[in-house]
Amino acid sequence: MSSDIRPGEVQAELPDRTDARLVFIGRIHTPFKTRADCPRQGRKDGPICTIEIDEPWRAALTGLEDYKLIEVLYWLHQSRRDLVIQAPGKDGVKFGTFALRSPVRPNPIATSMVEVVSVSHESGLILVQGLDCLDGTPLIDVKPDRCAFTPKADPKPGDSMVAAS
Ligand code: SAM
Asked: Model pTM?
């Protein structure tokens, strides 16, 4: 974790307890070896990166090959987690953490929509373009693009609920 703090940035005291037990399901391999090397957001024509799914999660890839675009959730493991106000630019202008997509956040979860190049169930490897993370970043989840996805289960009453007028 970087301990750098810029003028005007505000730190919060981190609680000693945690609320959820995340399971990392694999790692992401990218050509980006330092945070300075990483793009701020991945690009669809960016380098091909490898998402490596651990056993026993490889069976969970079944059907993923139907999607050209997938959402990847990952854990920015080298991020500090205690800033509530950040000054990301050279101009010193400040923003609240929840108004930014900064890696510095209480739970450093990142998401990217990426283009699928290939999916291999046997090896547990998904090749994609569009990532922005360090080589070795822990993987949290993989989901189909929500626009291309049709729910496989029956509709529920809440699906058609709208605001009262
Ligand atoms: N696309 C994601 C999002 O919007 O949720 C992440 C965006 S964040 C601005 C991407 C930046 O996080 C990179 O440019 C790099 O500086 C930093 N980063 C990448 N991998 C990281 C890691 N494993 N730990 C900490 N910081 C990381």
From this structure: 0.94
- Report which ligand 1 atom has the smallest distance to the Cα of 39: 14
Nearest to 27 by CA among 114, 136, 110: 136
**Shortest-distance Cα residue to atom 5 of ligand 1:** 110
Mind listing the pLDDT tens digit of every residue in the chain (165 residues)? 556 899 999 999 998 888 899 999 999 999 999 999 999 999 999 999 999 999 999 999 999 999 999 999 999 999 999 999 999 999 999 999 999 999 999 999 999 999 999 999 999 999 999 999 999 999 999 999 989 899 999 999 999 999 998
Asked if 94 and 19 touch (Cβ cutoff 8 Å), the reply is no
Q: In which region does residue 8 sit, left (phi positive, over 0), alpha (psi from -120 to 50) or beta (all else)? A: left
Tokens representing 14?
């981190």
Question: Is the CB–ligand 1 distance for residue 49 below 6 Å?
Answer: no
The token pair at 70 is 């997938």
User: Is the CB of 97 within 6 Å of ligand 1?
Assistant: no
Q: Which residue's CA is the nearest one to ligand 1's atom 20?
A: 133
